[in-house]
């Protein structure tokens, strides 16, 4: 119980209530002591009225009056005359004098605590003002024991009442915390546990119901997190299923392309000049497709294979990319250009770099053709101090806002209707395999520009 939130609230409430009662206890005891002494002064003054009425009283009556007043003697000062009105033998000398006419609140509290802490018998003198203008001063001498007994009795009753109040207050707070905080928190924890058993089940997502603002905010945050997690899990499941399907398709497609590769040998033997010119490109395309299918069969790890680094001419590779795209453009008003030094050699995996540039150019071509406008796509490259930089720029309509928010995430960054959103995700992974980065430099109504930066050092 004491390790629970409500149990700790119960303990803290009792502690704080008792602390408050202690702060009240000291002034209360001081006030009780002052009232007790004033009462003795008043009773002593009443006893002295018998002597004022009759100058001669019987000694037995005088002793009885003093015993009823609880004092040993009474001194009155009237008209600047100090007079011992009633008296009896003192058991000893006076130990301490209290003047109630001058004592402030702090002095009263200090004297009360001293009297409670001192168990020994003491003879005390008390001075105060008489009641009903009965004089200028009244003074009595009395034992301290009755005062201490009365203080102990009063203090014990105050402590018992304080403990009862603190217990009731703590119990009420315990019930309030249990209802307002602990139960809603346990409900949230229960939702989390049920959701953890089957996170793909959207029905187990929490529905905010709390009326407490902070708890409702926690429930809404949990709902948002669970919703995103469930969607992510469902997406990963679809990706896994897609991976299995792609692997099977790639396996059969590889066999088909391998057969097609055998026929290209005969095509190369043709005497037709056009066939001779196109045959090497056809062979290269089929070889590249076979390689892609073989890589896809390693889809189990959902990763691209480690790049095989070689030194190759970038201008020739980009020319192959653009030649393939020109066939796809056909008669459309779209021009392709390149600005790459003819002798620029870079180190990387030519197949993966080809796919990366081809994906960017293909995306740009599809965006421009989809807009129905004319345009231009250019590929440029330059050498910097520690990296090769390749820029792919187009004059298309720019990327929509939704595509920019999830640009490099698969199935979320699609820039055109019906697109799968895989192109840029593939490019990002291919470039990252080379230790490089892919960045969106600019996009808008005047076009889009991407930058591939490949470090000159070895990968990894």
From TrEMBL:
SMART domains: HATPase_c, HisKA. Keywords: Coiled coil, Kinase, Membrane, Phosphoprotein, Transferase, Transmembrane, Transmembrane helix, Two-component regulatory system. Its EC number is 2.7.13.3. It is found in: Membrane. One of its GO terms (molecular function) is phosphorelay sensor kinase activity. The keyword Nucleus does not apply. It catalyses: ATP + protein L-histidine = ADP + protein N-phospho-L-histidine. Residues 248-458 form the Histidine kinase domain. One of its GO terms (cellular component) is plasma membrane. This is histidine kinase. It comes from Salipiger marinus. The lineage of its organism: Bacteria, Pseudomonadati, Pseudomonadota, Alphaproteobacteria, Rhodobacterales.
